[in-house]
Amino acid sequence: MYIGVDAGTSMTKAAAFDDHGRVLRVVAERTQLLNPRDGWYEQDSDEVVASVTDVVRRLVVDIGEPPALIALTGQGDGVWPVDGDGRPTRPAISWMDARAADVLREWIDAGVADSAFRRTGNVFFPGCPAPVLAWLDRNEPEVLDRTATAAYCKDVVMQRFTGVRATDPSDASLPFLDPHTRVYADDVLEACGLTHRAALLAPVVEPCPRGALLPEVAAQLGVPAGIPVTAGPFDLPASALGAGVTAPGDGNLIVGTTLACQVVIDELDTSGEPAGLTLAYGPRGRWIRAMPAMVGTAALDWVLATIGEKHVRVNEFLDASPPGARGVTCLPYFSPAGERAPFVEPGARARYDGLTLQTDKADLVRAVCEAIAYAARHCFDAAGLRGGVAVCGGGIKSARWLQLFADVLGRPVRVAPKEEIGAYGAVLAGLAAIGSPVDATEWAEDEVVVEPDQTRTSFYAEGFEHYRTAVELARKGWKS
């Protein structure tokens, strides 16, 4: 039995898999996303570690046997400052945080952000570790002085579970890793004014950090000490791996809090407008080109809450409003930190257009669902999608919205069949890291494939051009 853990932004989930890759049980526990000030989003590292401990312990009790592996993945980006023992020196600053927006604007104006993208293939955004670290260095230097590691989420759990201080190449990719050598790029640190903080970056271990469960943690979990524990890749590439997206040109769409569109590439091109992330993925010379838009299902959540409705009615609303939402359109940039893919604009904001007294709730829901699908196509176009698309995430529970994605993308989408695809990807990576790789094709399950409707695809092709025009006009306004 293998346990995969995915420590997300608001939920920690753990899934138990048998020796054929079948899901035995999934347990989850909510964690708090703190909002101490407008635009600030933080998490308690101790609470996240406790949530991982709890879900693993519950799985062990439910299954009745200890795991042969605990494989960790989790949210990326942000900064999780910890001391030498992995204890927090301040609350973690989330990837959703906007406090470093002024630092980012300064770097954009000075050309620092552009030069870093040309070097690493990664854009900066307010919740990216580079501007967050610079903000901390300017505003809370005493915190960094007593910090041993500016860590990532899963790596905090790894250190507390095993004592290993390390990160994997995927998390380290953003923002300081040289994509070819997989070592930190000193010139990028220097450009960001962070050379004196280089010691805060954890060692990079390929393919991912490995360790043994400490006795005191094993006692809390009710299992023997020494069980192998691995950390990585983080949730985006872990989901791609779990969804079976490994061939260059193929894509993975994650319809979650973040709308993540990612494509496997084997050639790195950092020309053109800086956009998206370039994450180490598997062997050297292969990457994930990720376009994680700041808001996915969170935009729909906000609309439903505002109109006083629940997610169970989404299919009903999509049936009640025709394609095009009776002339109502939406730009889905609801994050207070703006947007990071397929363009970077800290001032990006959401809006509805075409509203009249005859607009109803169904039109509002359809318009935001169409807008998020358009955003996915925008991201995939920028990432270089050429092949098939595997889709996963909470948003695909709506069959009508899933069909809408296929229609807007104009290509079939296959639904990843396993629950907790990120945790599954972490298990696959973890087994390979400890020298027990499995043939993922033997663990594969039957998939559902949703074909696009050609009539609606033609309609949405025109709608997408209108969307792109609206975005470009809006960007001029955001910049001013």
TrEMBL record:
<comment type="similarity">
    <text>Belongs to the FGGY kinase family.</text>
</comment>
<dbReference type="InterPro" id="IPR018484">
    <property type="entry name" value="FGGY_N"/>
</dbReference>
<protein>
    <submittedName>
        <fullName>FGGY family carbohydrate kinase</fullName>
    </submittedName>
</protein>
<keyword id="KW-0119">Carbohydrate metabolism</keyword>
<dbReference type="InterPro" id="IPR043129">
    <property type="entry name" value="ATPase_NBD"/>
</dbReference>
<feature type="domain" description="Carbohydrate kinase FGGY N-terminal">
    <location>
        <begin position="1"/>
        <end position="242"/>
    </location>
</feature>
<dbReference type="GO" id="GO:0016301">
    <property type="term" value="F:kinase activity"/>
</dbReference>
<keyword id="KW-0859">Xylose metabolism</keyword>
<dbReference type="InterPro" id="IPR000577">
    <property type="entry name" value="Carb_kinase_FGGY"/>
</dbReference>
<dbReference type="InterPro" id="IPR018485">
    <property type="entry name" value="FGGY_C"/>
</dbReference>
<dbReference type="Pfam" id="PF02782">
    <property type="entry name" value="FGGY_C"/>
</dbReference>
<dbReference type="Pfam" id="PF00370">
    <property type="entry name" value="FGGY_N"/>
</dbReference>
<feature type="domain" description="Carbohydrate kinase FGGY C-terminal">
    <location>
        <begin position="255"/>
        <end position="433"/>
    </location>
</feature>
<keyword id="KW-0418">Kinase</keyword>
<dbReference type="InterPro" id="IPR050406">
    <property type="entry name" value="FGGY_Carb_Kinase"/>
</dbReference>
<keyword id="KW-0808">Transferase</keyword>
